[in-house]
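Weekly modeling sync, notes
Attendees: S.R. (lead), two postdocs, one rotation student

Agenda item 3: backlog of single-chain predictions. S.R. asked that every request posted to the team notebook include the full sequence so nobody has to chase files. The rotation student volunteered to paste the first one in as an example of the format we agreed on. Action items at the bottom.

Example entry:
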Amino acid sequence: MADKFLSFSRTGTGTVYTVPTANEGATPPVPPTTALVKSIRISNQTGGAVTTIVSMMDYSNSSLEIPLTQGSFADATESEVLPYAPIVLEQQDAIKLTGAGITILVSLLEIT
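Predicted structure, as returned to the notebook:
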């Protein structure tokens, strides 16, 4: 078992992070993984307000999309999406960003 602290970032709409899918037969093997998301920070430096959605995709529930934050995000601002508690992701769950020009940083612990 190995635990890894990781950070992922991107600017604009798309999937930021997906928990790896276990595949013990692969070379090298991919062990079952759980991710503990500690922080999700978003920043808007686009010059105007941007409608933004940060969501979690729950693969085990028919890819249910659960919004973590949504709304108009003003220019020259940043925000912590998870101010009080981390979230747990299972294999194939993902963090997704919708918002042109918005920058996101996801910090997490992968437990295998």
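Discussion: group reviewed the output briefly. DSSP finds no helices and nine strands in the chain.
Action items: rotation student to repeat for the remaining queue; S.R. to check formatting next week.
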